[in-house]
Specification:
- The complex is a heterodimer of chains A (524) and B (405).
- Chain A is globular.
- Helices cover 36% and strands 18% of the residues of chain A.
- Chain A has 17 helices and 18 strands.
- Chain B is of the alpha+beta class and 405 residues long.
- Chain B has 8 helices and 20 strands.
- In chain B, the strands form 4 sheets. A 6-stranded mixed beta sheet of chain B has the order 11-12-13-10-4-14. Chain B has a 6-stranded antiparallel β-barrel with strand order 15-18-17-16-19-20. A 5-stranded antiparallel beta sheet of chain B has the order 6-7-8-5-9, with helices on one face.
- In chain B, helix 2 crosses helix 7.
- Classes of the chains: A alpha/beta (524), B alpha+beta (405).
- The interface between A and B is medium-sized, with 16 and 17 residues.
């Protein structure tokens, strides 16, 4: 099975998710001949807009744009490539069962209740401190992680820089960062706040997209990470036409720079000759040669399926198989005949990011189920109604509700049978019904994506939106595994550019950008 | 599925199938642990036993050797990805000596791979390594099972072993060339046939065979061989006599000449096959194997140190001696890992891990040797010369058919 097809491209990018497209765009801008191969009919990967009920479209996986750095969007001139933003500053609202909802955003456009005096001051402190930490850490996300145990000046310098950034926070902040970095968000919030609703909402951001509950150690780390990632972006945004419009703009940027993009072209395997990657073979049997292959697929797919363990060392393969990559977040899409009433919320406030996590105890109870492979009976939710800002996603007068639901285990005991799916969906609607009593009456149809569905539809092993859990043991120079944490695989000519690589997923695009830089410097 | 052998906690040390015979033959009652078994290190005297290896025939209880059965549709692919040699070159009836390494090229262990049938192998090695084998099996359709307790093994080594086996009634084995094996039967007491696999392998660098049999036949085989050799000076030997022979043959021994990279605690104490002078088992052309890229980088860079053979002045073995570049001992350039006086070569031999600056044949270094003269310790600094290995490699070890003394 030796491919000796001549190298027609400098680089083949496997997968047209946002990271693949960002990587392709930067590579093409760097003067490389680039081909992007996408298995699906549609490009965008998990940043995609598609119909889920006749006339209703939704961002099928990721549903908010809040992590992509402004520099990246400017670099690729996404506005010129047709990206329009339907909303550029969503508020965040913590829903309260008694209707005393709480606005967490600084602007509070809808004039909701805000945290009380003591909590309000603490919240200001907390946001300010998070902001300082995030500013210090953000540059780390924009670079290739240093390798440990080498004598290369580049690695030493990067480590020194990280140390210097922490030191420059000042004694108080540095101590606090080191103190809370490994703690649970529950413990830290208990130290600072009293209102359960506030603590629940703040904790939600620490556990969303993770395999943890608020009492799990390491959840502060997850929150810091999210804050650091968001540091480069301006605000919570909604692209007009959903996240798929972002992917289209990224694809346009890549094409404008000279990249070719082929959809419906699943890669069967990566070809290797004389211990060097030589291209790919498509499922159709077509061989395409390239000097390098850059995979945006998750690490398990890339190494175990596309490349094959025979080309890798046994210790490396063991590390790859041990990567924690099971998703715990589901997605529920509701097609609504009309806008449901949320007592206590104006229509303007409904356009916010709505959180259902009334207390940290509530989240922890929701999480309890997941530990034993059950789904949460009363789950935590992140809700958006994108049609308020972007009516074009639904027929006139109708609406779309997009909900991220936790916790829904990838390996549900007994599997995700139709009965379980129905029970889970009912649980979500019932949970929401506590805040919007007529919700059930306005639902036209619903679509549930469990982690197993996400695995299938978006080809992500385990259905985890970060490809690999973002945690202390899987970040920076150990993400996804040592030996592949600098975007370069152990096999010459193979690179990673997906969410499984530093700094992770969440429609940030930095893995793609960092990888492109690495591909170009490796060839130099 | 992978399974493990019976748990070893039932008794502190297990007894090999030859244990009762070994205990009866032991005059010193000197037993040592080996891979969870109690085994003999000396029966009578090391010298007598050593000369049985080099002058007549010796029996060595090899049963504690860890044996794995490796089978399944991907057995060959699995092995070729794990070990450094190309196992596909040795079909049924052949044995391959090889090593396997971790990702960084650190030597984990060495052993012999017996090809029993296509995609069915037996791997014999010094220590249990199911953990590493399981990691190496990820992605392969292969079953790995430890069968140490299901097979009794006896090494028959020495210049007259072919004669001994023939006298005992084993027929047809003379056709075996080195690193070949086959199925044979030895007539036991009462005419009972004792089936066994015979391989022309060994750890002495001499003519010799290894017999692999069912545990229940072990004592009958032992008895038959000692009866057939009653006038041929055949003698059971312990591990200390064997150790002299293996140093003469230049073979490396885990935990003496290297520590398995799977078990090192300190950084930098793992050793590569190149450092151990085992380049001949590295097949860089066969495709990828674990550690290949690291080893290629080491070849390109040149090893920092290497195991060499030393011929040391005097007669006192240079056990654990530090080696210096100069007589005054200012610059240490290595240390001795194995040492012995060689009764056959009449030379004072050692294996030493030496800095790259002093590995060329003919290089001279100085060894610190500590002498105990009636409890008065003296330090001698003896000249040592780097010499080629093996120190002893008689033609008879390879002649096929074997010499009929």
């Amino acid at each position: 099975m030796i491919s000796s097809a001549p190298a027609r491209y400098d680089s083949i990018v496997v997968g047209a998710g946002h990271n693949g497209l960002v990587c392709a765009a930067y590579l093409a801008r760097g003067g490389r001949r680039v081909l992007v191969l996408e298995a699906a009919e549609r490009l965008g990967g998990a940043a995609v807009t598609r119909e889920f009920a006749p006339g209703f479209r939704v961002s099928a996986c990721a549903h908010l744009l809040h992590l992509m750095p402004a520099t990246l969007m400017r670099d690729l001139r996404l506005a010129e490539q047709g990206l329009e933003l339907a909303h550029t500053g969503l508020d965040t609202v913590a829903l309260a069962p008694d209707g005393e909802h709480l606005s967490l955003g600084p602007q509070n456009p809808a004039g909701l209740a805000q945290a009380s005096d003591a909590d309000g001051a603490a919240l200001e402190d907390w946001h300010a401190q998070l902001e300082r930490f995030a500013r210090a850490l953000h540059p780390v996300l924009t670079r290739t992680p240093p390798r440990l145990g080498t004598e290369a000046w580049r690695d030493q310098l990067a480590l020194l820089d990280l140390g210097w950034r922490l030191r420059r926070l000042g004694r108080r902040d540095m101590r606090e960062l080191l103190r809370i970095g490994g703690m649970s968000i529950h413990d830290v919030l208990e130290e600072r706040f009293s209102l359960p609703l506030l603590k629940g909402a703040l904790a939600l951001d620490a556990v969303l997209g993770t395999n943890y509950g608020p009492r799990s150690p390491g959840t502060v780390f997850a929150l810091l990470y999210r804050a650091a990632a968001a540091q480069g972006a301006q605000a919570l945004m909604l692209p007009r036409g959903g996240l798929g419009a972002l992917s289209e703009a990224l694809a346009q940027a890549a094409r404008a720079a000279g990249a070719e993009i082929r959809t419906r072209s699943p890669v069967a395997h990566i070809s290797v000759h004389a211990d060097h990657v030589t291209g790919v073979v498509l499922a159709s049997g077509e061989e395409i040669g390239a000097a390098s292959v850059v995979s945006s697929a998750d690490p398990k797919t890339t190494f175990l399926k596309l490349l094959g363990v025979e080309h890798l060392d046994a210790g490396f393969v063991r590390r790859v198989t041990q990567v924690r990559s099971r998703g715990l977040a589901a997605k529920l899409h509701l097609a609504l005949d009309r806008l449901p009433q949320f007592p206590g919320l104006t229509e303007q406030a409904l356009g916010a990011r709505l959180l259902v996590a009334p207390s940290t105890d509530y989240i922890e109870r929701a999480y309890n189920h997941a530990k034993y492979d059950e789904f949460s009976r009363a789950p935590i939710l992140e809700v958006t109604i994108p049609t308020l800002a972007d009516p074009g996603l639904a027929p006139a007068g109708k609406h779309v509700m997009s909900v991220i639901v936790q916790y829904a285990p990838y390996k549900l005991a007994g599997g995700w049978q139709p009965a379980q799916r129905q029970a889970f969906t009912d649980g979500v609607i019932e949970t929401l019904g506590a805040y919007a009593p007529q919700l059930r009456a306005v639902i036209h149809s619903a679509e549930l994506l469990t982690p197993t569905d996400i695995e299938q539809e978006f080809r992500i092993t385990g259905g985890h939106w970060h490809h690999a859990e973002l945690a202390l043991d899987q970040f920076l120079m150990v993400r996804p595994v040592p030996g592949a944490a600098q975007y370069q695989a152990p096999l010459p000519g193979l690179f990673l550019c997906g969410a499984g690589s530093h700094p992770g997923g969440g429609v940030m695009g930095l893995a793609g950008r960092n990888a492109a830089r690495q591909v170009i410097s490796a060839a130099a | 599925m992978l399974t493990q052998s019976e748990p070893h906690y039932r008794q502190p040390l297990l007894r090999t199938p030859f244990h009762e015979r070994a205990r009866a033959a032991s005059q010193l009652d000197s037993f040592v642990p080996w891979a969870g078994y109690t085994t003999v290190d000396v029966y009578t005297s090391v010298e007598q036993e050593y000369f049985a290896i080099r002058n007549s025939s010796s029996l060595f209880d090899l049963s504690p050797m860890i044996k794995y059965r490796i089978a399944g549709p991907d057995a060959l692919r699995f092995l070729n990805r794990m070990v450094t040699r190309d196992v596909s070159r040795a079909g049924p009836g052949r044995v391959t000596y090889t090593v396997w390494c971790d990702d960084e090229g650190g030597l984990i262990d060495d052993g012999t791979v017996f090809c029993i049938a296509p995609n069915e192998y037996r791997l014999c090695t010094g220590e249990r390594q199911l953990d590493w084998f399981r990691a190496s099996a990820l992605g392969f359709d292969v079953q790995i099972r430890e069968i140490t307790e299901e097979v009794a093994a006896l090494a028959v080594q020495g210049p007259t072993t072919a004669r001994l086996l023939k006298a005992a009634g084993l027929a047809g084995f003379e056709r075996l060339k080195p690193f070949e094996h086959g199925e044979f039967a030895l007539p036991g007491a009462g005419g009972r046939q004792l089936p066994m696999m015979v391989s022309r392998t060994g750890f002495t660098g001499d003519l010799g065979y290894e017999l692999w049999m069912q545990p229940q036949d072990a004592e009958a085989v032992w008895d038959a061989l000692l009866a057939a050799g009653s006038t041929r000076a055949v003698r059971p030997i312990g591990s200390r006599a064997l150790n002299i022979a293996r140093i003469e043959a230049g073979f490396v021994l885990p935990n003496y000449d290297f520590v398995s990279a799977a078990g090192t605690l300190y950084l930098g104490t793992e050793r590569s096959p190149i450092e151990l002078g085992l380049e001949f088992v590295l097949d860089f052309k066969k495709g990828h194997f674990t550690g290949r890229r690291a080893l290629l980088a080491e070849v390109a860079r040149g090893p920092r140190r290497q195991l060499v053979g030393l011929d040391v002045e005097g007669t006192k073995p240079a056990h654990h001696a530090l080696l210096y570049a100069d007589r005054r001992g200012r610059t240490q350039v290595g240390s001795v890992s194995s040492a012995t006086w060689s009764p056959t070569c009449k030379r004072n031999l050692a294996l030493a891990m030496m800095d790259a600056s002093h590995i060329a044949t003919g290089s001279t270094v100085w060894a610190d040797i500590y002498l105990n003269r009636e409890l008065v310790w003296e330090r001698r600094r003896m000249r040592a010369r780097v010499v080629p290995r093996p120190f002893f490699a008689p033609e008879r070890r390879r002649a096929t058919p074997p010499a009929d003394f």
